Amino acid sequence: MKKGRPRKTRIVRNDPITRQFSPRGRRGRPGYRELKMEEFEAIRLADFMGLSQRDAAKFMSISQQTFSRVIRSGRKCLAGALVRGEIIRIQGGDFKVEKTA
DSSP characters for the chain? Predict the structure, then answer.
């Protein structure tokens, strides 16, 4: 039985166009890292679209502190995959898709 507050579902506005990125030029089978959907959305909002953490957190219907933890985790995942030449798979997480009009 889990203790503490229940996790709030994160809002993701659009599915990613691509769900996997693979490095080229590496021999053998590289390992992989899983980038959660909410981490992808946080990176998209803050780094790609340039929203502030406050605005991006509102967009995802979560607190700014939670957003900060989600984006930190996503950036660490991406950095690890780039440094080690691993595959990045976008999947999983605790989210709900709400399409934009």
Answer: ---SSPPPPEEE-S--S-SEE--SS--S---EEEEPHHHHHHHIIIIIS---HHHHHHHHTS-HHHHHHHHHHHHHHHHHHHHHT-EEEE--SSEEE----
